[in-house]
Amino acid sequence: GGLLRRGGALEGSAVAFVRYCSSDAWMGDGQALGREFRGARILQAVLRDLVRRGLGAGGRHTLLLSGQSAGARGAMVHIDYVHEMLAAAGLPDAAASVEVLGILDSPLWVDIPPFGPSSQVLRDQCQSVYSHLQVKHLGGECAQAHAQESWKCIMGEYRMPYVRTPYFLIASQFDSFQIEQSVGHAPANDQERAYAGKLAFRTRDVVNALYTDDAVGRRFVYSWACYDHAVTLDSPSFDLGMCSGDTIHGALVEFLGAATPRRHWIDDCSGFACGPGCPEGPLVAATS
């Protein structure tokens, strides 16, 4: 189902599906807690195998680096380095022979205070990963902008403005993973829903800034006000939900065939999970 289904946007493409086992959002190349965290090396090995199988040979190819949740965060970190990684994999003219695009589903962690003292704090997780796992692909501009807090360059809110490779971003305003990390469960009362609303407001600000940044090229942003996370593989949200008149699948098809440098689908409503095109309908009626 989803992105890889028959008749979908990628039908006819060669697909390398790599299961997640490195527990480092594909970013690390280090050892900690007596374990190896080598997500970056795994990606490098996959690219080396693709080159061996003919990527970039016999004409110009398009490589879609895609992921959802942790996979999207890893793709976000590495995508501007793919040509460099392909060159290291044995394709010295990678920039000329391979076009790189990104499909980033739910990488946009935003940096808001936790709901309570026992909440999981995403910025703490980023700081820990950066401190222990030897993350190298920080992006030159991002690393310069956050020279005193380099961990920010593996957190979506801070890294996405510096991604230069063309991408299609999916970012639910009521991201269920981020909310449940902080609240501990789906919001069940007014206080918890108000916290979720703060996340939605911050997410909407971030995606609007990404879309309107004229300093960079092709960016497609899909951000609905729905309570979900990581929808590109098997979720019915991929084909059934709507934002600004388009499904995620329809928007992705437009991205892949795009002549325009920018396009956005961004809900703007009030109330918890208020998006009028959410697959289950708005959980709370939208208000003006």
Offer a concise description of the structure.
The protein is α/β, with parallel strands linked by helices and 288 residues long. Helix content is 34%, strand content 14%.
Overall residue-averaged pLDDT value: 92
What is the H-and-E element order?
EEHEHHHEHHHEEHHEEHHE
Total number of β-strand segments?
9
CA-based gyration radius: 19 Å
Distance between the termini: 36 Å
Structural class: alpha/beta
Largest sheet: 5 strands, parallel
Unreliable stretches (pLDDT < 50, length at least 5) are 284-288
Helix share, percent: 25-40%
Helix and strand topology:
Elements: E1 30-32, E2 35-37, H1 39-52, E3 61-68, H2 70-78, H3 82-88, H4 94-97, E4 98-105, H5 122-132, H6 140-145, H7 156-159, E5 167-170, E6 174-175, H8 176-183, H9 190-212, E7 219-223, E8 227-228, H10 237-240, H11 248-256, E9 262-266
Parallel strand pairs: 3-4, 4-5, 5-7, 6-8, 7-9
Antiparallel strand pairs: 1-2
